[in-house]
Amino acid sequence: MKAVVITKPGGPEVLEIQERPVPVFKSDEILIKVYAAGINRPDIFQRKGNYPPPTGAPQDIPGLEVAGTVEQIGSEVKNWKIGDRVCALLAGGGYAEYAVVNAQHCLSIPKQISFIEAASLPETVYTVWHNVFQKGKLQSGENFLVHGGSSGIGITAIQLAKGFGAKVFATAGSDEKCEACVSLGADLCINYKNEDFETALKDEGADVILDMVGGDYIPKNLRLLRVDGRMVFINTMKSNKAEGVDFGLIMKNRLTITGSTLRNRDISFKAELTKEILKNVWPLLESGKFKPVIYKEFPLEEAAKAHQLMESSDHIGKIVLTNGW
Ligand SMILES: NC(=O)c1ccc[n+]([C@@H]2O[C@H](COP(=O)([O-])OP(=O)(O)OC[C@H]3O[C@@H](n4cnc5c(N)ncnc54)[C@H](OP(=O)(O)O)[C@@H]3O)[C@@H](O)[C@H]2O)c1
After folding, report:
1. Atom 18 (ligand 1): residue with closest C-alpha?
2. CA 205 to chain CA mean position, Å
3. Kind and range of the H or E element at 219?
4. Per-residue pLDDT tens for 168-202?
5. Is 148 in the pocket of ligand 1 (CB under 6 A)?
6. Looking at residue 39, what is its pLDDT?
7. What is the pLDDT of residue 324?
């Protein structure tokens, strides 16, 4: 099969199409014929050598999410049959013509959703559900702030938070990105290049903040949190160090600071999360209240161009690779 391989740590040019054997599946796994694979920022970090895949995952083929049809099933798999349309969360190996995944980490693709749209969903939906709703415990009527509102994570967080009745704020780096965030349901989006988000939101405050930026956002986030507020980190792209953090606020306002990374979680955790998503998020997808946002698709052979686009941060929503089956 064709696969995109990280030949060595480096820039987009280190991605190369190679011939690889179709992966072997275990008794509790399925083999997916991949029609489309979503691109996520962690793939960029992996390509640069800063985000190694967990043991057991494909080591040099990136890709955390795919959509396609079930090609073969392991002997213990009861919940899928050959030909089913599925999307799946992977720990790696998605940029290829075939991918192997635990049968419990797959979701059926609703009829009106294309393979390209479905491939854009698992990594961000699982991350947002776990961090915003399970760890952040966002409730209807609360104020929610997401940084990087136009990112794959951001467009998912805005729609799901709104869908579950929160008042939603976002930050993004251009007016065009802010307009997109508002069109997806954000009540207010702050272009952080023109306006200080802490000043803009100080009267409102936030019950839950999802942050991927870190650095100098950290003290501002803590000051914005309301009493019993929850701060959830999924990355610290600027820096994982911060100056001027007032830890007194944590006691005074009873704040919770938490965070997580999805990729290294075990099989049973991801299986439980899959069930939760099927129950809570899939109905919104089926009803059209939650929509995939595809910015651009590229053929598998142009994975380097797709990575360049993601690193430019010009995109709004998701970038997807297609296989041309
Ligand atoms: N913990 C987990 O389990 C988990 C899982 C998936 C993703 N993530 C993280 O979530 C973040 C979003 O992922 P994604 O795939 O949605 O990425 P993405 O679409 O590429 O979005 C990243 C956005 O972050 C904004 N940004 C702000 N500060 C930045 C900085 N210093 N460097 C680069 N970008 C910056 C950019 O938008 P502006 O132009 O508005 O600044 C950019 O569009 C990433 O940091 C990723 O590592 C974490």
Report:
1. 151
2. 25
3. helix 217-224
4. 999 999 999 999 999 999 999 999 999 999 999 99
5. yes
6. 98
7. 85
How far apart, in whole angstroms, are the C-alpha atoms of residue 89 and residue 102? Answer: 9
Per-domain residue ranges for the chain?
2-121+263-322, 125-259
Considering the domain 2-121+263-322, what is its CATH architecture? Alpha-Beta Complex (3.90)
Average pLDDT over residues 79-107: 98
Architecture of domain 125-259: 3-Layer(aba) Sandwich (3.40)
Query: Does 42 contact ligand 1 (Cβ within 6 A)?
Result: yes
Atom of ligand 1 nearest to the CA of 177: 40
CA distances for 31 relative to 7, 68, 159, 162, 218, angstroms: 24, 10, 31, 35, 42
Q: Is the CB of 262 under 6 A from ligand 1?
A: yes
pLDDT of residue 282: 98
| pLDDT of 235 higher than 90 | yes
pLDDT of residue 325: 82
Judge if the beta carbon of residue 310 lies within 6 A of ligand 1.
yes
**Residue 53: CB partners within 8 Å, gap ≥ 6?**
46, 59, 91, 92, 263
Q: How confident is the model at residue 80 (pLDDT cuts 50, 70, 90)?
A: very high
Q: Is the CB of 127 under 6 A from ligand 1?
A: yes
Query: Which tokens sit at 312?
Result: 């430019």
